[in-house]
Amino acid sequence: MRPFAYSRAPDVQAAIAHAGAGAEFIAGGTDMLQLLQEDLRSPATLIDINGLSLTGIGTDGDALQIGALTRLSEVAAHPDIRNRFPVVSEALEATASAQVRNMATVGGNLLQRTRCLYFRDATMPCNKRQPGSGCPAQDGCNELNAILGGSADCIAVHPSDLAVALVALDARLVIAGPAGERRIAIADLHRLPGDAPHIETVLDPGELITAVRLPMAMADRKSAYVKVRHRASFEWAIASCAVTLSLSGQTVQDSRIVAGGVATRPWRLPQVEAALAGQRLDAPTIRAAAETAAEGAAPRPGNAWKVPLQQRTVARAISTAAGVP
Ligand SMILES: Cc1cc2nc3c(=O)[nH]c(=O)nc-3n(C[C@H](O)[C@H](O)[C@H](O)COP(=O)(O)OP(=O)(O)OC[C@H]3O[C@@H](n4cnc5c(N)ncnc54)[C@H](O)[C@@H]3O)c2cc1C
């Protein structure tokens, strides 16, 4: 770990004013401290944002708003989340461990860095850490890397479970920055790696996520979050799927189906949604729709097994949400 300056921001304006130019935010610190310890980040200054009034969950107009500094455990346990947006609780309860969830925040979770082995090893080249240095995962140890959304420069998997559930709810982010406040769809937060994998989001330098908004129009949908991982706890997804369904009887009026653990960002599956639209849900219909889940996949030699795993994970998530055995 390299030396850095530390300051506590008293309010959002002060946090934004001091960010950028070698300064980075720290919230729960569960990812940031690892990055510092492993010499993967070396900011000149850490701005501690834990003193900002960005905690809590409450109705605000047409949305349920979650402050960006709310701890994952509090979000998962909140009655309005459990009862009206249970896919969020399910994704969070499958995240990390109880201890990590007590410390980790919503904003930090969405902006945590990838677990790609090469990114996490400061002795290895990695285009995300050091643009232009190469991507050894392409022909190296790529079992856990992405089959969707990759480029010749990067095939690192996006790690957040919460982000996958939020895309299935069409959630919005409230962002504060030097130019004022703006709102974006969570689906637009994470960028594809392309030829600039070190630029992971559409956030401008110094911008702070202040809240996540769950549209009340998406409340009470049938939903499910299914996560497959190597260990039952304390482990990121090797495949996951968040599903929200609007049903009339057993017939699909609308659906949002999003894959995690297999792609470079939360991966919406419009072809699966199209295959379900207007259909009465039964096992053969779900199986046929899920067969299309890996369309466009470009597996590497080490991770072709993710293709059938993703299809089965998607099928299981739709079946669980719809209550179809
Ligand atoms: C052992 C272990 C297992 C884990 N397993 C999982 C898992 O299964 N699924 C999963 O999703 N995650 C998992 N995680 C990751 C964990 O959820 C994240 O580390 C955590 O959510 C990050 O939140 P934080 O508040 O600690 O962020 P920090 O570490 O403080 O910050 C992370 C990043 O976000 C930035 N940041 C933080 N808040 C804001 C904000 N409001 N606005 C702008 N930038 C901000 C920081 O600058 C930093 O770049 C695991 C972590 C550990 C240690």
Would you spell out the secondary-structure blueprint of this structure?
Blueprint lengths: L4 E4 L3 H7 L4 E4 L5 H6 L7 E4 L8 E4 L2 E5 L4 H6 L1 H6 L1 H8 L4 H6 L2 H6 L49 H8 L3 E6 L2 E6 L22 E8 L6 E7 L10 E10 L2 E10 L6 E2 L1 H7 L6 H9 L14 H17 L3
Parallel strand pairs: 1-3, 2-3
Antiparallel strand pairs: 4-5, 5-8, 6-7, 6-8, 9-10, 10-11, 11-12
Helix pairs in contact: 5-8, 9-10, 10-11
Bound molecules: flavin-adenine dinucleotide (FAD).
Flavin-adenine dinucleotide binds next to strand 2, helix 6, helix 7, helix 8 and strand 8.
Radius of gyration: 19 Å
Strand line-up of the largest beta sheet: 4-5-8-6-7
Unreliable residue stretches? none
> Proportion of β residues?
15-25%
Q: Could you explain how this protein is built, in words?
A:
The chain is of the alpha+beta class. The protein has a domain at 220-322: Enolase-like, domain 1. Helices cover 26% and strands 22% of the residues. The protein contains eleven helices and twelve strands. The protein has helices at 12-18, 32-37, 72-77, 79-84, 86-93, 98-103, 106-111, 161-168, 270-276, 283-291, 306-322, and strands at residues 5-8, 23-26, 45-48, 57-60, 63-67, 172-177, 180-185, 208-215, 222-228, 239-248, 251-260, 267-268. It has a five-stranded antiparallel sheet with strand order 4-5-8-6-7. The chain is globular, with a radius of gyration of 19 Å. The protein starts with a strand and ends with a helix. It binds flavin-adenine dinucleotide.
Structure keywords:
single chain; 325 residues; alpha+beta; Enolase-like, domain 1; five-stranded antiparallel beta sheet; 12 strands; globular
